[in-house]
Amino acid sequence: MARPMATVLITGATGGIGTDIASRLVAEGKNVYVTGRSQQKLNNLIDQLNPMKTRDDQIIGQFQFDIGWLTDIKREMPQICKVPFDTVIFNAGIMFPKTPRSANEDDLPWMEDTLKTNIVGHFLMARHLLAEQKQSIRFVCLSSVTAKFPLRWMRWKTSPSEFHHFFARSNYFTDGWTSYIDSKLAAIVMAQWLNKQDNKSAVAVHPGVATTAIVLSIPENQRKILSPLSRFQKNDGTNVCANNVINAALSPDDFTNTWICHDTVAIPRLSEVQKNSFMDFLHELTKDFM
């Protein structure tokens, strides 16, 4: 039997996989709330979704904020927490930010933007939801097959203080690949932690491969280098990827390893010390934004 799904929150829903997830769920009669940075893009999405509604009392809601700005999340979460979600899909993500935030206007000026957006912002949202909502919630954290890259998880740290330097902006320079890989590995660790919370379940999922804004953000010279690999990796398209995410949300299984991948890969072998230290680091990092 599939898990119940009536009211869903989707982050980063104004394009790519997120838009396709929202479209399918609205067409199936779910109450759907979407988030995004751009108010205009949110308005356009709501205009696109409204004709798909199947019942008069169906709700399509929106929350406008930047998930890479923790002050934005702190401001918005009281309103978000008023909605009794049974499913939360952490979809928002970036890889090569076009306009890095300047240090004087950023919440955490020392931290790399991709990590802040892909993992820290989602964790802060989860903390608020865990504190305010006692009903059963299924969390779906979008990860990536890149998380299995061994040279990254072998370098993960074993104390919270070490993660502060490891995730620093200066440690990544302009390399979007390593920060993206670390953020997707972190999504698996966060899902494992969420899966242990009372009356909550979570899964991390590699949805498949699609040409999204993240792919298009890769510098052109690097895309040319990667293009021969397309012969070996099928492009599933955003619709197929969206269906894979929804299927992960609906699955009745708890997934002991909280990791679904639509390719055959092993879950990264982080030690319990590494995982616990990382979660302690996230708690310390976000405590002032609760």
From TrEMBL:
This is Dehydrogenase. The gene is WBGene00091784. It comes from Pristionchus pacificus (Parasitic nematode worm). It comes from the Eukaryota. InterPro entries: NAD(P)-bd_dom_sf, SDR_fam. GO terms for molecular function: oxidoreductase activity. Keywords: Oxidoreductase. PANTHER family: RETINOL DEHYDROGENASE, SHORT-CHAIN DEHYDROGENASE_REDUCTASE FAMILY PROTEIN. Belongs to the short-chain dehydrogenases/reductases (SDR) family. Pfam families: adh_short.
